[in-house]
Amino acid sequence: MTSPSAPLWFKSSYSGGSGTECVECARTGEGALVRDSKSDVGPVVVVRRQAWRVFIAALVSGRRAP
Question: What is the pTM of this model?
Answer without folding.
Answer: 0.71
